[in-house]
Amino acid sequence: MNAGFDLTGQKMLVLGADGGIGRATAHALAAQGARLVLADRAAPRELAESLGDSGTETTATACDLRSRAAVEAGGKQA
Hints:
By secondary structure, the protein is α/β, with parallel strands linked by helices. It has three helices and three strands.
């Protein structure tokens, strides 16, 4: 990643965080100092714990994008 790209303290919502692209995105954002809300159909707790162990502030939440109520609830956590 670009060393000049600083997200320190910015909160980011990563949808599909338990999949390949979402997981890679979460790691890249964490490396730039972002605080993360990780969302997937099943809350990606292992990823949140792994990133949290390395110092990233994380929250894991279940969010099924097929459900409007779930999306609204997930948005409130972000």
